[in-house]
Design goal:
With 174 residues, the chain is an alpha+beta fold. It has two domains: 95 residues, 2-Layer Sandwich (Glycoprotein, Type 4 Pilin), CATH 3.30.700; 61 residues, Hypothetical protein ph0010, domain 2 (Dna Ligase, domain 1), CATH 3.30.1490. Helices cover 27% and strands 26% of the residues. The protein has four helices and nine strands; from the N terminus they run H-E-E-H-H-E-E-E-E-H-E-E-E. Helix 1 crosses helix 2. The longest helix has 17 residues.
Length: 174
């Protein structure tokens, strides 16, 4: 189901990060209704130029869209182990990307995966690594990133899944 998000979603992400950096507390948005109260899975990525500075999200949502935006914005900014935490000064240079994934489907091999338009999930032994659409230029590189993100050393007997997603970039849709 296609979703259309407003600038309000980016404002929620930015305010959540700013408030957390200032107070260490999660901000609440009780007045938001509609789409913001629905269970929508989401990934929040923080971009500085062409570089990712943090990313967090979920394929299975147990919380409302607004709660996910707040939680994953804070995690992307301060707890993504792959990057150093973002400070208030750097936040001014960050663009927020919101990715809304759809249900993944299993694929028999990378031949059935297009890294430019689809995300990849690598699963093995209860671990999984996720690569969002257009994060890798080739399927092989996406697999390498997925394995690294999951902490998996060997692709043998790993399960591969792909997913479509809608991607929104602060200031305009990608």
């Amino acid at each position: 189901m296609p979703v259309s998000i407003s600038e309000t979603a980016f404002s929620v992400c930015r305010k959540a990060i700013e408030n957390y950096l200032e107070t260490g507390e999660k901000i609440k948005f009780p007045n938001l209704t509609g789409l913001f109260r629905e269970n929508i899975p989401v990934f929040v990525s923080l971009k500085k130029g062409n570089q990712t500075r943090g990313c967090a999200g979920t394929l299975l949502s147990e919380k409302s869209f607004v709660e996910n935006l707040v939680d994953f914005s804070i995690i992307a900014a301060t707890q993504d182990f792959r990057y150093r935490a973002i400070d208030k000064q750097e936040l001014k240079e960050i663009k927020i990307q919101i990715t809304i994934p759809v249900q993944p489907v299993e694929i028999p091999s990378l031949f059935f995966y297009n890294p430019e338009t689809e995300g990849l999930i690598v699963e093995k032994n209860g671990k999984n690594g996720i690569v969002l659409p257009n994060e890798a230029k080739t399927a092989q590189y996406a697999l390498k990133i997925g394995l690294r993100n999951a902490g998996i050393n060997d692709v043998s007997s790993a399960r591969l899944l792909k997913f479509k997603a809608q991607i929104f970039i602060e200031g305009g849709k990608e």
